[in-house]
């Protein structure tokens, strides 16, 4: 799969993260949500349909992915959801001018280890600006050698593992989708390590 096409497909992690959002739908109205690496934007669209104020983003270097975000919004009758070009690891005017946020979403953004630090740099920047925000992320375990633990420590972030069975996502078929299948998908919530005094 070519880099430019990553964001043109609904990955299994997106279905799992969308399920988590649906399970927490009563807490979403009025929440300010940013989805990073949104691609086809399934989690962000679900959040918006549940009443959250959503901003979708993908790399400014991938106009096809940004167009995919816009198309998903139009197909789901969400024409007013903003779509921004935000490139991980890069401080841009768009990043600096973001309104306050409560939740950052990212499904399968931890795909290529060369991007891990850029992603966490961006997440750290956003959490520093929004200390009570959380990063809700799902990822597919592709290699036992790939870990973000050292990077979380470096960037003073903490993670909480969310068991899939706790929100009904530990099934091969989820929300009428067979995408989750037999993939090893995990979910975690990342926040600032010192946000609770640790």
From TrEMBL:
Quaternary structure per UniProt?
A: Interacts with HSPA5, HSP90B1, TUBULIN, UGGT1 and UGGT2. Interacts with TET3. Interacts with STPG4.
Just give the chief location class.
Answer: cytoplasm
Question: Which reaction equations make up its catalytic activity?
Answer: L-arginyl-[protein] + 2 S-adenosyl-L-methionine = N(omega),N(omega)-dimethyl-L-arginyl-[protein] + 2 S-adenosyl-L-homocysteine + 2 H(+)
Which SUPFAM superfamilies does this UniProt record tie to the protein?
S-adenosyl-L-methionine-dependent methyltransferases
- Gene Ontology CC annotations of this record: cytoplasm; nucleus
Is Zinc one of the keywords?
no
Q: Which Gene3D superfamilies match?
A: Vaccinia Virus protein VP39
> What gene codes for this chain?
Mettl23
Q: Which UniProt keywords apply?
A: Chromatin regulator, Cytoplasm, Developmental protein, Methyltransferase, Nucleus, S-adenosyl-L-methionine, Transferase
Q: Please give the organism.
A: Erpornis zantholeuca
Q: Explain the purpose of this protein.
A: Histone methyltransferase that dimethylates histone H3 at 'Arg-17', forming asymmetric dimethylarginine (H3R17me2a), leading to activate transcription via chromatin remodeling. Maternal factor involved in epigenetic chromatin reprogramming of the paternal genome in the zygote: mediates H3R17me2a, promoting histone H3.3 incorporation in the male pronucleus, leading to TET3 recruitment and subsequent DNA demethylation.
State the similarity comment. Answer: Belongs to the methyltransferase superfamily. METTL23 family.
One Pfam family name is: Methyltransf_16
Example of a GO MF term: protein-arginine omega-N asymmetric methyltransferase activity
Do you know which PANTHER family this protein is assigned to? HEPATOCELLULAR CARCINOMA-ASSOCIATED ANTIGEN, HISTONE-ARGININE METHYLTRANSFERASE METTL23
InterPro entries this protein is in?
Methyltransf_16 (IPR019410), SAM-dependent_MTases_sf (IPR029063)
Q: Where in the cell is it found?
A: Cytoplasm; Nucleus
For this entry, the protein name equals Histone-arginine methyltransferase METTL23
Task: Please tell me whether the keyword Transferase is annotated for this protein.
Answer: yes
Offer one example of a GO biological process linked to this entry: regulation of gene expression
